[in-house]
């Protein structure tokens, strides 16, 4: 029952954006009348689809089917000149899209726990050209993509380790929480509704969250 309430909250959070194109049908009437109203709404859409197909243009359904393979269609080979720091926007986007597509495929296959291991120079914490901004952009790309599908995403950043004088933040994550807070999360207010930011720990687990992105890059080597 609580899950249904969460879905209801999700629907209410986005319903205002679609209010001008939403058609309501009273389902309490006899089913013949309800089906007739549904048919009257869908018939123009079906006719428009036929017109689009006949005119030689791609239908909306075709575009949706091709969405998953869009990155593959645009593939131009693995980027080179990765020693140029910072990487160009096109190179960074190539790897963001690559990680996103792999993650989406794994989730569609039923995987519930994933680990992203990417070692390009700007995302390799063992290198002196490691760039925290690139990591934050990758996280934003993943979070926004799943938020667009209606999922509630929590980005969990590894906090300080140890206690008292031994407490400290991993160098690879210094300032990352602040960066995430001030980043641009889109025009429709995803941050705070479908995307939230927290730390890693049992206290951060909430029932309404659909998925968690754990940010914890490490450069430790050996038996740690």
Note down, in words, how this protein is organized.
This protein is mainly alpha-helical and 224 residues long. The protein folds into two domains: 23-65, no CATH class; 68-215, no CATH class. It has seven helices and three strands. It has helices spanning 2-15, 31-54, 60-67, 70-73, 89-108, 132-148, 176-182, and strands at residues 153-157, 195-199, 211-215. The chain has a three-stranded parallel β-sheet with strand order 2-1-3, covered by helices on one side. Strand 1, helix 7 (176-182) and strand 2 (195-199) form a beta-alpha-beta unit. The radius of gyration is 22 Å and the shape is globular.
Order of strands, main sheet, comes to 2-1-3
Q: Helicity level, as a percent range? A: 40-55%
Separation of termini?
A: 43 Å
Total strand segments: 3
Low-confidence stretches: 220-224
Structural class: mainly alpha
Note the total helix count: 7
Largest sheet: 3 strands, parallel
User: Whole-number radius of gyration?
Assistant: 22 Å
Q: So what's the overall shape?
A: globular
């Amino acid at each position: 029952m609580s899950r249904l309430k969460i879905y209801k909250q999700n629907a209410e959070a986005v319903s205002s954006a679609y209010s001008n194109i939403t058609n309501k049908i009273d389902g309490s009437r006899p089913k013949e009348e309800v089906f007739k109203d549904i048919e009257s709404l869908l018939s123009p859409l079906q006719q428009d689809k036929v017109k689009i197909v006949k005119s030689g243009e791609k239908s909306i359904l075709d575009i949706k089917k091709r969405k998953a393979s869009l990155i593959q269609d645009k593939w131009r080979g693995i980027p080179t000149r990765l020693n140029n720091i910072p990487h160009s926007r096109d190179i960074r986007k190539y790897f963001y899209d690559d990680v996103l597509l792999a993650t989406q495929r794994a989730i569609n296959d039923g995987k519930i726990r994933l680990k992203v291991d990417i070692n390009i120079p700007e995302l390799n914490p063992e290198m002196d050209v490691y760039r925290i901004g690139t990591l934050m952009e990758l996280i934003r790309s993943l979070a926004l993509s799943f938020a667009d599908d209606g999922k509630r995403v929590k980005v969990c950043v590894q906090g300080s380790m140890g206690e008292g004088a031994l407490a400290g933040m991993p160098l690879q994550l210094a300032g990352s929480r602040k960066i995430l807070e001030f980043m641009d999360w889109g025009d429709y207010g995803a941050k705070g509704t479908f995307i939230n930011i927290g730390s890693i720990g049992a206290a951060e687990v909430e029932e309404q969250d659909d998925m968690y992105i754990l940010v914890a890059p490490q450069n430790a080597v050996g038996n740690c």
